[in-house]
Amino acid sequence: MPEQGNVGGGWQERLSALRNTPPVLKIVWQSGPGVVIFGLVARIFASLLPLALLWIPKLIVDAIVHSRVAGQPVSPRLWWLVGAEFSLAVLSGILARAVDYSDSLLADKYTRHVSIQVMKHAAELDLIAYEDPVFYDRLERARVQATDRLGMIQQIGRLIQLVITTITLSVTIIVYSPWLMLLLIAGVLPAFLGESHFAFLGYAKNFRQTPVRRQLDYLRLVGGSKEAAKELKLFGLSGFLTRRFTALSDGIYEQNVALSRRKLIAGAFLSVIAYLGYYSAYAFVIWRTVTGVYSIGLWYLLSGAILQASNNLQQIFSTLSGIADQALFLTDLLAFFEMQPTIRSKPHALPAPRPIVRGFEFRNVSFCYPGNPRLVLDRLSFRLDPGERVALIGENGQGKTTIVKLITRLYDPTEGEILLDGIDLREYNLDDLYREIGVIFQDFMRYEMTARENIAVGRIDELNDLDALKIAARKSLADQVIAQLPGQYEQMLGRRFDGGVDLSGGEWQKVALARAYLRDAQLLILDEPTASLDARSEFEVFQHFAELTAEKMALFISHRFSTVRMADRIMVLENGRIAEQGSHQQLVALGGRYAAMFEMQAASYR
Hints:
Layout: H1 11-16, H2 21-31, H3 33-70, H4 77-124, H5 133-148, H6 150-176, H7 178-223, H8 226-234, H9 238-290, H10 296-329, H11 331-338, E1 360-367, E2 377-384, E3 389-393, H12 400-407, E4 415-420, E5 423-424, H13 430-435, E6 437-441, H14 451-456, H15 466-476, H16 478-483, H17 505-518, E7 523-527, H18 535-548, E8 553-557, H19 561-564, E9 569-574, E10 577-582, H20 584-590, H21 593-603
Parallel strand pairs: 3-8, 3-9, 6-7, 7-8
Antiparallel strand pairs: 1-2, 1-4, 4-5, 9-10
Helix pairs in contact: 2-4, 3-4, 3-6, 3-10, 4-5, 5-11, 6-7, 6-10, 7-9, 7-10, 9-10, 15-17, 20-21
């Protein structure tokens, strides 16, 4: 990917963008081989018709002139020529519609195919990539490019048709006078260079504007979202957001206008040169006809061929410029597809053990996020045994959630190793490992789907097993929530779609908890999923959780000590290490960090 400051500079870079075309054509072929072949054949036949539709009228005109000059009746052959011209005209119309039909089918197939590929590839990439703003910019451009490059595909098909037609017309012109072709090319070439130059300047501008456009999208979302409406009114933020949006959008508008103005002036000048080339060739043909060198029919043929060849040359150069422009925009899509995850299953990876016998072990694990040298975890070591319930507590930023992401292998440690039954997690098949772990994060997803689907995402294979879904809902207490819904398990949740019903934060959390129970996993993890519940409701949920995980490994994070004390072992994290660990009674008796935190929270309830 070129550096931002250098985008759009130099013809070498511009032409190199065309290297993006073959990979895109491969994607197009994969999306619908049959449709591609059908469209290509239709275009080839359509491209041969323009010359035939000029040649037959030439013969007709010459036959009429000969008949008038010789004073003889019109030959019956003339009417066969008229019939042939009619047939070719009808065929031309049919082929044009066949091309449009194939383009329409291919557009649908390509959009569907490439959108699925983007979704699949995005799901394979490392979680840590999503925390990089540069990746987000690339992903955003890739998503747009996945569906907005239909124009390029149609332009490539159009280019093939134009090139074949132009070759047939050019050969005809060159047979009678090579100079005519040189005049046409000399007039069109400057216009092509100008169009290409401004196409690449447009890409450079759009590339620079991507971060700003993301800000505009965010401001547009915040300014009209249900979640922000209360604070916008109470804090009087509407004017602030509007002014910021206006300033950013005005900057983009000024950049767009400046480029469009330059393109208008240069384009007008270059079009004059193109017309000079065409009319010089046209005048030459008229002169040759007037002097008796060319017949009237040949004048008709060459005039039409020059006009169409001139237009086609301009369209070829313009289309090539457009393809190069579109190819540059595809740089991010192809770069996105080239990105490979670092966290993946090894060849012949081991299946996750079932049952787990020795549990998990962190052995001298250190971790820091890319671009930030601070160690979130510093040589951390601990065990999580089968059947044990462990609670993690500590101030924000001490590594609690990072431990969860490491034990689920969403990240790999910077140093050290994490073992499952004495074997490094990296030796296990990822999908198989994930199946043995059920996790609900604080920022769990609220899917704008039915209640049944919202639970089933925990184990999507169980989507149609309503009995299993009901059991999971009963375990998480979500069954009481669903019973109150008009459509119960088929009720659409959320307000995005018609008929949807929104839930309270606590109700959503119970639905999300049902996903974890549906997995029937050997390790259940709750990463502060009940943060928006009141203390009594959270206690009820976790008491139920404790009963349901009696024979499973459980890891949970909570700031409420009424919940934490249910754990068999509590680990207090500080500066990326375990400051204290033990049962609630042991840690209170120790009188250390945990006891102080417990006393502070208990005092607020007295």
